[in-house]
Amino acid sequence: MLNGNILTPDGWIRGTLHFENGRVTALEGSSVDPSTNGEPYILPGFIDLHVHGGGGADVMEAGNAIEAIVRTHARHGTTSLLATTMTAPRDELLAVVSNLGEVTRNRTPGGARVLGVHLEGPYINPGKLGAQPDAAVSAVLDEVLKYLSVAPIRVVTLAPEIAGHMEIISEMVARGVRVQLGHSLATYDDAVAAMKHGACGFTHLFNAMSPMHHRNPGLVGAALAHAEFAEIIPDLLHVHPGAIRAAMRAIPRLYVVTDSTSATGMPDGEYRLGSQHVTKCLGGVRLADGTLAGSTLTMDDALRNLVSLGLPLADVSNRMSRYAADYLGIEDRGRLARGAWADAVVFERDLTLAATYVEGEQIVEYA
């Protein structure tokens, strides 16, 4: 049972949230303007669809690494996530994906739920690797089907301009995969064609993609003109606040991701990102040449960053939970409603995270 200002799908209420056996059983209370009282904020738990690591562990390590990752992110309000891979040789990637398939079957106590896998590469443009290793390949249906057979692949990032990828997009979409465009040199027309084939998302909008120019709109222009959904990293390093605001006006259900690495929740120093070595310093993570390489962002910091830009808390909450759930077609997460999973975060009035509940379990260890 939780008491305070509760954000429901219909707006704020001041009252009580009841849950049992991991599910919300009742919501009691009346409509309220949360600015009129000193009660804590109770929001849906955060859903992060782009997580490479945390707590010193990297998704590509497989094994027990995922336990450190999900516990680290739960301590910062994330209640469910997609384990996100890096580009790697086929045999290595297949082994990692297979391991992640096992991980999705049970939740680690004290940790966020792993909803599935975000395959970020290897089907990307070698000319827009960003911090991805140089192991990009063109998609082949038999290979894609093999990955799908060993794990719940919920999202795939690819470059639509690569020969054969339009047909692969259609095949993946037909199997329930959300296809995102990213790490790409696509033209505006390439992107629009990909969306007609079923692609419906954009990976870390603005980063590692062809930029917008008024006579050559590129992938960014296609997203701003046509997308319903896209992910963005609001660490205020990857994207300028003005660009974040522009994207929010253009893309109705722009949602937050961290693109977090093993350096998340750790002191400055050297860490791993897939096969790459990265350095955490000055609040960011970079390759030796200075390229941004994922982030150290946590979802509670993302919330505070967006509120600091003047965005209403309810709008920020939707972008950190509900829209990601909607994107994946999940109706029982990302919202506090009867029958939904009891995934919730409690924030004090100063937006300090006070508690995380994952499927009704209170996470009590905080960084």
UniProtKB/TrEMBL annotation:
Binding site for Zn(2+): E120, H183, H204
Positions with a binding annotation for substrate: A131, N207, A208, R215, H238, L292, A293, G294
Cofactor: how and how many bound: Binds 1 divalent metal cation per subunit.
Keywords from the UniProt entry: Carbohydrate metabolism, Hydrolase, Metal-binding
Single GO MF descriptor: metal ion binding
NCBIfam families cross-referenced by the UniProt entry: nagA (TIGR00221)
Protein's name in the database: N-acetylglucosamine-6-phosphate deacetylase
Native source organism of the sequence: Trinickia dabaoshanensis
